Automatic annotation (TrEMBL):
Name of the featured protein: Endonuclease GajA/Old nuclease/RecF-like AAA domain-containing protein
Limits of the Endonuclease GajA/Old nuclease/RecF-like AAA domain: 46-126
InterPro entries per UniProt: AAA_GajA/Old/RecF-like, Bact_Antivir_Def_Nuclease, P-loop_NTPase
Superkingdom: Bacteria
SUPFAM superfamilies reported for this sequence: P-loop containing nucleoside triphosphate hydrolases
Organism encoding this protein: Muribacter muris
Ranges annotated as spanning the membrane: none
Length: 214
């Protein structure tokens, strides 16, 4: 409630963080395919899609636009270096490709001085963060990192694996315990529960595809 009140009842200017790293606002706009507009008269946030002459209310916007609204407004008007952002399952309602873009944006925010804590069930986010850690540790390919695949990775999105921590939660005897996950320069983030499940699915698909008895 306080966040919303501050939004409509104050003289707004770009946050100190965005004033220093204004390119991040463009990256976020690319992620959502537009920008958020604060409608003071009606005290609401609206969405303006790129290259379209219309404004959409949050009710008219997609679920992904609604779910990223708080993050977008926070970055634009409130963020300061050293802040801690806590996001529960940021992958909700996002296409897998946008989940990967969001992971790269998180990495850039971290490298620019924000702290980020997320909970996630997204293998796409975990795998993308793993790629960023692995690339950062491969000095021989850093000069050509933007030529890898069609993503065109940027140096400011790469992650020092010593700067991140990953924990896996498990229910044990009616308690939730956190286990530290290994992060290395070969596999990136090692998450057996994700990897085992994906491998199991792939094995089933192979069995179906190559078995003449099914």
């Amino acid at each position: 409630l306080k966040f919303v009140q501050n939004l409509f009842f104050r003289d707004r200017e770009l946050s100190p963080f965005i004033q220093k790293y204004d390119y991040l606002l463009h990256e976020f706009s690319d992620l959502i395919g537009g920008e958020y507009l604060i409608d003071n008269e009606n005290e609401e946030i609206r969405f303006i899609p790129n290259n379209e002459n219309l404004e959409l209310s949050m009710m008219e916007s997609s679920s992904s636009i609604r779910s990223l609204c708080d993050l977008g407004i926070y970055l634009k008007f409130f963020a300061e270096e050293g802040d801690l952002i806590i996001i529960d399952e940021p992958e909700l309602n996002l296409h897998p490709e946008n989940q990967r873009k969001l992971a790269r944006l998180f990495a850039k925010l971290i490298n620019c001085g924000l702290k980020i804590l997320i909970t996630t069930h997204s293998d796409y986010i975990i795998k993308e963060l793993s790629i960023l850690c692995i690339l950062n540790s491969r000095e021989e390919i850093l000069p050509n990192v933007n030529k890898i695949s069609n993503v065109k990775y940027e140096l400011n999105s790469l992650l020092d694996l010593n700067r991140i921590n990953v924990f896996l939660s498990k229910d044990t005897n009616n308690y939730v315990k956190l286990y530290t996950c290994e992060i290395n320069n070969i596999d990136g983030i090692v998450l057996p529960t994700f990897d085992d499940t994906i491998q199991d699915i792939n094995s089933i698909m192979d069995e179906i595809a190559f078995s003449s008895e099914i």
